[in-house]
Specification:
Blueprint lengths: L1 E5 H7 L1 H9 L1 H19 L2 E6 L6 E6 L2 E5 L6 H9 L4 E3 L3 H9 L3 E3 L1 H16 L30 H11 L3 H11 L9
Parallel strand pairs: 1-2, 1-5, 2-4, 5-6
Antiparallel strand pairs: 3-4
Helix pairs in contact: 1-2, 2-3, 3-6, 4-5
């Protein structure tokens, strides 16, 4: 799967990444690239992290499975994300305009907090408990908002199910189950 990440938006939502950014913008970008590269190794997905840039912008490698794009001075990172979203994939941002533009372009829009929670879970599953778990996490966060709706009230919306499937690809258990699926195991063993 192709992931498009709003770089500074993600950095500023994570206390760990924000502390690196306080050292310097470059340290914050490096920390995000390291985090995303570790997830790319496990999931096999490709990630493009987009940052606001200056001058002509450019594209560099952020590690295995990670490309970094700097927008030009004439175009914001938000516009670059929406433009890249037309090619498909999942866009990670809390910026309302980016999420709406990505959805209009046919891409899956995923919130930064959801993405960071899933990345942290995948990192803990892969590398052990490197960071304390969130004690305030609500296990019932996936429940739909109350109100009159038609259909099964416990079933998530189509968009929420698509986001859950995309986020599920980031964990090591998903990578193992995809590998088993390619080895010819039956349908019931596939994720």
């Amino acid at each position: 799967m192709r992931w498009l990440v709003d770089g500074y938006n993600v950095i500023r939502r994570s206390p760990e990444l924000r502390s690196h950014e306080q050292e310097s913008l470059e340290a914050g970008r490096r920390a995000l690239c390291t985090l995303v590269a570790s997830v790319a190794r496990v999931s096999g997905d490709t990630f493009t992290i987009v940052f606001d840039g200056a001058g002509d912008g450019g594209r560099v490698s952020g590690g295995p499975g990670v490309a970094v794009v700097f927008s030009s001075a004439r175009e914001s990172a938000d516009r670059v994300l929406v433009r890249l979203a037309r090619e498909g994939g999942a866009v990670v941002s809390n910026d309302r305009e980016v999420r709406q533009g990505a959805a209009r372009a046919g891409a899956l829009a995923i919130g930064t907090d959801e993405f960071l929670d899933r990345v942290e879970t995948a990192r803990r599953d892969t590398f052990g408990p490197t960071a304390p778990a969130d004690e305030h996490a609500d296990p019932d966060d996936d429940e739909p908002a109350p109100g009159p709706r038609k259909g099964n009230p416990r079933k998530l919306s189509k968009k929420a199910r698509a986001a859950r499937r995309a986020l599920g690809r980031l964990g090591p258990s998903a990578a193992r189950s995809r590998a088993r699926g390619r080895n010819g195991l039956g349908d019931r063993d596939r994720a």
